[in-house]
Write a structure and sequence with these properties.
alpha+beta, F1FO ATP Synthase, SH3 type barrels, Alpha-Beta Plaits, three-stranded antiparallel sheet, 8 strands, elongated
């Protein structure tokens, strides 16, 4: 009798293992390759929508994985415990089974992820700020969004918690640059030097989408004057543009003997 029980138990474990192997093969080989081919074909036809398409197919890939392994789990339950999983699902509904397993948050995150895609709030590659964390969207799945910061840190946040997102990757950006000089300098002379730098920058800085504008004297204090510069630039280049223009302006000040204030605000 013991040998028979062991044989039956072993047979069920083998069948369960086979179900897992088939599910893994279907997930990685069939679904994985199909999604990759769809991405390539879609990007070839619509290269301008490539980030959005990659995001959409990433979520679709995750959803298909969840469905495959959920079905595999039902088969394994039926093999190991003689549970009629089909009847359970038919009686309670898939949503009821998921809720009974305590995965209500999965539904919330999945719905939020769907609206993120439908409304095109952000896509893979976009520069975003979430809860004072700024970085590029690395991936979007059915449940989570992964954002990679400038120093390599990754913020992994459920889609249901993406309530306030600043997307820096839509339309051209503005770099606001404030330059300080000593209050004893001639405002007209300083503006002339800055304007010369901006005129030359437009010629060899392809990141600029328009001429950088010198707004003029923005503030005057007891020891310093502040000048405001507005530079329109390509999305994601505003920080680079600001650093480069500040470097050029500082060099121009040194060449023309323009002094910086002792304690620039």
């Amino acid at each position: 009798m013991g040998e028979i029980v062991s044989f039956i138990a072993g047979s069920r474990l083998i069948k369960s293992a086979m179900v897992l192997i088939i599910a893994a093969a279907a997930d990685r080989l069939v679904i994985g390759l199909a999604i990759k081919n769809l991405i390539r074909a879609a990007e070839g036809r619509n290269p301008e929508n490539a980030p959005k398409l990659r995001t959409l197919f990433s979520v679709l890939r995750t959803l298909m994985t969840i469905i495959i392994y959920f079905i595999a789990a039902l088969f394994i339950m039926q093999i190991l415990f003689d549970v009629n999983a089909t009847s359970i699902v038919a009686a309670t509904g898939v949503v009821g089974v998921i809720a009974g397993l305590g995965a209500q948050s999965i539904v919330k995150d999945s719905i939020s992820g769907t609206f993120i895609l439908l409304e095109n709030q952000y896509a893979v590659g976009d520069l975003v700020t979430v809860d004072d964390f700024t970085g590029y969207v690395e991936s979007v799945t059915i449940r989570t969004t992964v954002i990679k910061g400038f120093e390599g840190d990754r913020l992994i946040i459920p889609n249901g918690n993406m309530t306030r997102v600043i997307n820096h990757s839509r339309d051209d950006k503005r770099a606001l640059i404030r330059v300080h000089t000593a209050c004893g300098e001639s405002a007209d002379r300083v503006m002339s030097v800055i304007q010369a730098v901006l005129d030359n920058a437009r010629k060899d800085m392809p990141e600029l989408t328009d001429d950088a504008k010198l707004a003029g004297v923005d503030e005057v204090g007891p020891v310093a004057m502040q000048f405001l510069i507005i530079a329109h630039c390509q999305t994601g280049t505003q920080f680079e543009v600001k650093r480069e223009l500040l470097r050029r302006i500082k060099n121009a000040f040194d060449e023309n003997g323009i002094k910086m204030p002792p304690n620039a605000a």
